[in-house]
Design a protein that fits this description.
single chain; mainly alpha; 2 domains; 9 helices
Length: 209
Amino acid sequence: MKQGGVDKKTGTELYFNFEQLTTSVPNFGVATMNIVMRTTQPAESLAGTIHQAVVLLDPTLPVVKLQSMDDAFAEAIGRPRLLAQLLGIFAGLALLLAAIGSYGVLSYMVSERRREIGIRMALGADRASVLRMVLTQGLRLTVAGVVVGLSAAFALNRVLASLLFGVRPSDPVTIGAVVALIGAVALVACYLPARVATRVDPMIVLREG
């Protein structure tokens, strides 16, 4: 049973008959007791019946907390879920900043190399080769960033494991999805400046020089 939490390993539990313990073990008593019921009805609809059954056994016994197993599970993962949501928000902001940064760096690079691109096109370079050159440079930076990010993620493996439930930090599907998402965002961010570079008019650039 997972008594320590959903993120803890399953432990061994022993079950005893309560009436036998109270008669065979001197001074045996419990401060609280959890009773689990299997039913197809909502827990709220059974509240009155449960309270009445408890009162018939002992009028002094209070029913402290009545909840469904889904509610108990949601409460157990409340903190990890909040941390995961915050982590997701910060990851989304980081992805947005990375896209804006990639676009800004490549736009600046295209503006700085505008004359060079114009000369290349004047010497016979076609638009496809210019597009490929700019995209290659931008995606090369993306690959370097992904490698550094994955290295940091594996280094923080234990910290990430404490925030995740049911997913390993080194899960290949998760890593593949993240790399694919970052690659797609970077491709779009790199394509826009690359597209601008292909529209450079070599005659105008050479006249300006």
